[in-house]
Amino acid sequence: MPIRIAGSMPAHDILESENIFVMTETRAISQDIRPLKVLILNLMPTKIVTETQLLRKLSNTPLQIDVEFLQTASYTSTHTDPGHLKQFYCVFDQIKDRHFDGMIITGAPLDYVKCEDTAYWNEVCEIMEWTKTHVHCTFHLCWGAYAGLYYHHKVEKRDLERKLFGVFPHKMLKNTSPLFRGFNDVFMAPHSRATDVHLADVEAVPELEVLAVTEEGSLAIAKTKDSRQFFVTCHAEYDSDTLALEYFRDMEKGLTTVDLPVNYFPDNDPSKAPQVTWRSTGQLLYSNWLNYYVYQSTPYDIDTIC
Fold first, then answer.
1. Cα separation of 203 and 174, whole Å?
2. Which residues are catalytic?
């Protein structure tokens, strides 16, 4: 089934060239079904790249999906063309009276920054509070996961001495979860973060359950027991070159703490093109979330979400 986005969005042509079924608004209005309403709060500076990565994963779903993008009003991105933001993004005041079936709160490059010191922290808190009554299921991703765990459940993030950087094997702690249908017994997924939480702190919260961890025991996926909130620290949506671009960027900056991404370049040789070992994980993670935790349980009358 298709994902529904504006035909003029940059991701549209990219996804069509990859043989991914996308539908323009013009064609969608002729179909007599209710699309899922999904809102993405995009906090990444590279907004177009993040848009495309997430839309690619959301494309493999059982229903038509109407995706909208949200930006913060308290902080304006300096890395994205203002015209793009004006055309494709809204701010919270424009949508706060509406309801959504699903929402994704993305990561942000905020390693070593306390939540309260983040420029848009108060606004993000307001949005996260609003999700409890206006969004059926919220998917908190990377920094968004740490922000959500801290705001909703008082689980504090901590700094890592060395960045967790590369593609890591993961083990499922609840392999009967619908989220993992179709997964391999051990699944691979990228991480790029210098932030973590103590697993025991998450396990101590009665409302939370840990679903997956890295082989070293770092939190990868958790959710609330009512399945209304997901917290995902890995980046199964990453492109093949995402970690490479980050690695070469940091090398060019002369950073002395740059590590070669783990399990990424063949023979650990940065001159060789990376091989993707997480693509199917990404497709399953996002499609299973949408199918089993959004589509299967969201009310048909979207305004009854509470």
1. 13
2. 142, 235, 237
